[in-house]
Amino acid sequence: MPSSSDFASDRASILGPTLRFKGELSASEDLVIHGQVEGSVGPAPRVTIGPEAHVKAGVTADVIVVEGRVEGDLKAQVSIAVRPKADVRGNLEAPVVNIAEGAKFNGSIKMEAGSAAEDSNPGFDRDSIAFRTGTSN
Q1: What's the rounded Cα separation, in Å, for the pair 55 and 37?
Q2: Number of domains in the chain
Q3: Phi first, then psi: what are they for 91, rounded to 5°?
Q4: Inside any domain, residue 96
Q5: Is the backbone peptide bond immediately before 43 cis, with ω within 30 degrees of 0?
Q6: Is residue 89 one of the residues assigned to a domain?
Q7: Are 95 and 133 within 8 A, CB to CB?
Q8: What beta strand segments (E) does 26-115 contain?
Q9: Domain range enclosing 52
Q10: Is the pLDDT at 2 greater than 70, yes or no?
């Protein structure tokens, strides 16, 4: 099973498990969060919230991958992937949303049709429930 570091690009800022950050966090490189963040995250190209992370923040990025716990709204330009052990309490907004079986989710989902981003889904796998605007799976 791939780890959250497998989803990060070659250039990423990694916030370790002992980190506690409060405020506004943004980056022009990918962010991998393993600690606790409160406030706002993004914009960033890709935000990965690791399995031990607890984020109380709105998150904005091109791609968002959640493996841990998030309390806040997530907004992505391309896709949002919620992994099997993730716990998300907030609203999701992206052209492609993927919620894996076993994930906990409480919120609403908003997807806009007609985006070229719908044609790519980096978080899709066969054990997932994928939501795509304007198509049926």
Answers
A1: 5
A2: 1
A3: -90, 145
A4: yes
A5: yes
A6: yes
A7: yes
A8: 30-33, 36-41, 46-49, 54-66, 69-71, 74-82, 87-89, 92-93, 96-100, 104-106, 109-110
A9: 4-126
A10: no
